[in-house]
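During the reporting period the student researcher (J.K.) took over the structure-prediction task from the postdoctoral fellow and processed the backlog of single-chain submissions. One of the processed entries is reproduced below for the supervisory committee.
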Amino acid sequence: MNKSRSFLLFSGFILVIGIIFFMISSKNINKEVTKKIDKVTTADYTFETIDGTKLEIDVEDNAFHVKGLENKTIFLKIFGWDCEFCQKEIPQLINLKKELGDSFEVIAIEAQEHSVEESKEAIKKYGINYYIVQGDTHKDFYRYLQEKYGWTGIIPLTIVIAKGGKVLAFELGEKSYSLSELMKASLLRK
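J.K. obtained the following structure tokens:
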């Protein structure tokens, strides 16, 4: 009887230790799963550039937060390779990028649905030094711009985004002023 009682006590002790170990282990596993889930992208819009860079944008009222570019002033453009007004802006964008360096970025979404090969040829032809995104898969982003800002599809479209994400300007079509003047005017509105 003593042996069976000792065996039961020992078995119960092992069972309690096993349950405690299981509970501690499951807490650690839950923490690891939570960390992994937190790392999964939850961006409102994800763009892939011609060169394969992923750009994640979260939007909120009058703001665009571009992950990794929060400390830069950004021109978010919607343009087309065949648009004569868009073509006129390309040298200005290249020069602005050169002049302003790391404090400035351009993300240009090509909305006339040219192929990746055509875009690569145009990038090389113009010597483009900023991000180009194929626009054919971003209809949901276009709808957002239509609903939130009343965009009618006119290009070029320039959205000036301040450091921190605030939208400073939403400019449609050809401008009678240069993009550098737009940049100066927008930054004065801060």
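The committee noted the following: Strands lie at 45-48, 54-60, 63-66, 73-79, 104-110, 131-134, 157-161, 167-172.
J.K. will present the remaining backlog at the next meeting.
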